[in-house]
Amino acid sequence: MLNFLSKVGDYAKETLQAAKYIGQGLSVTFDHMSRRPITVQYPYEKLIPSERFRGRIHFEFDKCISCEVCVRVCPINLPVVDWEFNKETKKKNLKHYSIDFGVCIFCANCVEYCPTNCLSVTEEYELAAYDRHELNFDNVAMGRLPYKVTDDPMVSPMRELAYLPKGVVDPHVVPHTAPRAGKHPEDILQELEKQAERQTPEASSKN
Ligand code: SF4
Ligand code: SF4
Predict the structure, then answer these.
(1) Is the beta carbon of 119 within 6 A of some atom in ligand 2?
(2) What is the pLDDT of residues 18-40, one digit of tens each?
(3) Number of domains in the chain
């Protein structure tokens, strides 16, 4: 009899615990039912990449001086700079340039250190391919400028979630032309200049 009662007790305890867990799960579900959906209907809608997004690298063939700085600063020596020395002009002539984006880690070191600024990062992130060898971009492929999300007539651009104004949870209602939360680097520079101007007369009056 005692054995039977203890089994019934265990069963009741487990039932209560299961009910508690189901309640916890449903409370999350009901909580989400009162929120607005923030799903991005890709590829018809796309988020606008953030200002410092490091996407596929763009290359300007005519600006490259074949110095190979990009190769030396790359953590995996990835860029391939194919050049030949011109004895008459005593300069290097660039023949081909390529970066394998299947291997690149998009650190943008090469972009930072290139002395002629012929490399730049773009906001292109759609690099999916069936064969990873297709990701080995030559100078022609790297010279192509990507379509901006905001210029693509086939796409509704949406403000990145991190840039939504305070209290807004739905990126669909914020036009892409609306100012972003936070300050642009040029605004910060302007403020710093004004601050410096204000401090200079104060410092000279003390002297
Ligand atoms: S982004 Fe980084 S990993 Fe890619 S090529 Fe440039 S330096 Fe190398
Ligand atoms: S650092 Fe710039 S200029 Fe020099 S080889 Fe690389 S891409 Fe060309």
Answers:
(1) yes
(2) 999 999 999 998 888 877 767 88
(3) 1
